[in-house]
Amino acid sequence: MLYYLFQYLDKMDFPGAGVFQYISFRAALALITSLLISMVFGKRIINFIRKKQIGETIRELGLEGQTKKAGTPTMGGLIIIAAIVIPTLLFTKLHNVYIILMLISTLWLGGIGFLDDYIKVFKKNKEGLKGKFKVIGQIGIGLLVGSVLYFHPDVVIKERVVSTSKDLGAITTPIQNLKAPKYAEVPVKNIKTTIPFMKNNELDYGRFISWSCKDCAKWGWLIFIPMVILIVTAVSNGANITDGIDGLAAGTSAIIGTTLGILAYVSGNAVFADYLNIMYIPNTGELVVFIAAFVGACVGFLWYNAFPAQVFMGDTGSLAIGGIIAVYAIAIRKELLIPILCGIFLVENISVIMQVYYFKYQKRKRGLEYAKENRLFKMAPLHHHYQKVGFHESKIVMRFFIIGIMLAVLTFVTLKLR
Description:
two-stranded antiparallel ribbon, 2 strands, mainly alpha
């Protein structure tokens, strides 16, 4: 909203109003505002939740310090959502299709998580919202996101025009000497995405179906939309599973968000996109402002969620941040980088799947008692396994942060290492 106000003031030659045209300036304001909201107003929200006795019910898992967390306020994801939505409304171009999509995704998945937390806390039902309803909600937002990104006229890319060897040489030219690259004047609609570690690193989903008939590439949405649904569901559930010890989900999400913000910035800038030999995607620059608010919200939430946690984000926060990461990556055409960038979410997910199937296999082969005594992990997801081994949760979280940073660096490396 402030963007439009200052745009009007700039037309009136109001001194300094033009600074709001810069994405970097608005991103900085969004980051600061989200930090202030989550740190300053977050305390008031925590106190309100505590007065309403909205506390976490802790299951006895045999983990050190676990029972001490009983009664800790939950549903703190409301802090994260407020710290994302308010700066986004203030500092972004609200008519931008990507911003609209991110806001809808945030509120949609946050709403599913809120409903789950509400059933657990107020209805005293430890199971919360039934899994099938969560999945239906995730499929719904995945269907919406996939349809908008495929069919909306503003979701386009600009193809690079390479006619001479001189143009090709721009890839290895020192960045300070780069000139504006040549791109087609007319943007095109397609469903290309970036493939890591590949030299010609663009994949069109339409190719998966184009073999069947001459014009079948136009039916590429039959591949693209299910892929979007799968990614949104997997990443939101991965973030939900990762939210098991103090600060882990919020901290790793901040690292992932920072990486995605940089990728969005270079993808929306013609010169940097040309230098890195990645797709130039017009209008995605606004997403930098959104992700700045996201990172600020996660870091600000850590102020209260770091060990020992004063508040838990609950499913309200974890489903929302996972969905945001998934939709954001898809919007900037970097969804195939998710297994690397979100490696912690992936491993946490896989550890649960492996634990379940290994238990079932051993139960079928050798009986229930043997299966109970010989689990693949001492406990799943993986962070609980390390707790069982004897590591303090603060050490586990810090080491996961270090791994997250390493994965973020590797994600950047894939842009040039091909």
